[in-house]
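Please, structure for the following, as tokens.
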Amino acid sequence: MTPPEHSNSEILNMLRGHPLFEALPQGDLERLVEMTSPIHLDQGEILMQEGTPGGSLYLLLEGEFEVTKRSGQQDVQIALRGPGEVFGEISILDRAPRSATLTATRPSSLLELNQQAFQNVIESSPQAALALLSTITSRLRNTEAMLRQHEKMAALGTLAAGLAHELNNPAAAIGRGAEQLRELLRKWLEASAQVGEISLATVEQSAIQAFERRMLDPGSVEEVDPITRSDLEDELTSWLEAKGVDDGWEYASWLVSGGWSQQELESMVAGVSPDHLERILRWFAIGVSLFSLAGEIHEGAARISNLVGSFKTYAYLDQAPAQLVDVHKGLEDTLIILRRKTGPGVCTGPASNRGLWQRTQSGVDQFD
């Protein structure tokens, strides 16, 4: 593609419209134009690469450039530069490495001004020096603001992804538990109806009442290792099936989780008629499973509530910009949110020696 032609008068008008050159006399501007070199870049070509040595100033006549800066593993777009804009002003002062990368987003034509020619401009026009300082300061502030915003958004994205992962586990458990709960409730209603059909002796009524008390208040359960737990479940499954509970394997795990053993169950049903034993055991096993599953759903909901509360505290949502904050509580909330990465071994319990900090409206953290 042939680059467009630009007359000296067009270039002079463009230079005159830029703060860097507007105070220069006409003769100086004309000599400046004579010291420039035309450059043409196609779409995708790089004019300057971040980190490479600087040395020239560029005036964009036609086209557009994307300005990007490296932040971590990503290139962050800082700005888009259009016709009439000047870039390269920072590096031309002391040949410092380029602070950003400029890539043509479409075919572009520029004028290159070398360091000596630019030095002549600065020496002959104090206004140009002030304009240069203003341009540099403005662009540095803009770059810093863009990078800071990018880092905030990246941190927020990482935090949100971690929170979504943490919320997904208990949410999925609640969903599965709700489906199981519906089925168990149906079975328990059937089992309760079957128990209600039989004429219970006094000792059997006492056994059922004892079962009900244990279902409503199971008490503390001692944790056992996986191998011991598996042995207890196998033992209880065999015992239930021997008593006529065909699907005893389905309830053995819940009974073991509730702290029930074969010996305790045998003691509880010692006076129950063999004809009624299967119905009562089935009713009780389903009931224990039902209450245990409800407890797991409650734990999942509490986990979600805990995560949301920690995230809300962490992000200072719905709170005044200036406040006293418990530093230890903030650290604990952070560890709760990042538990997926920190692992289960990190202690997030209550801490002593509480410290307070104040988060001011300007964003400065002041410790007391």
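The chain is about 55% helix and 15% strand. The mean pLDDT is 75.
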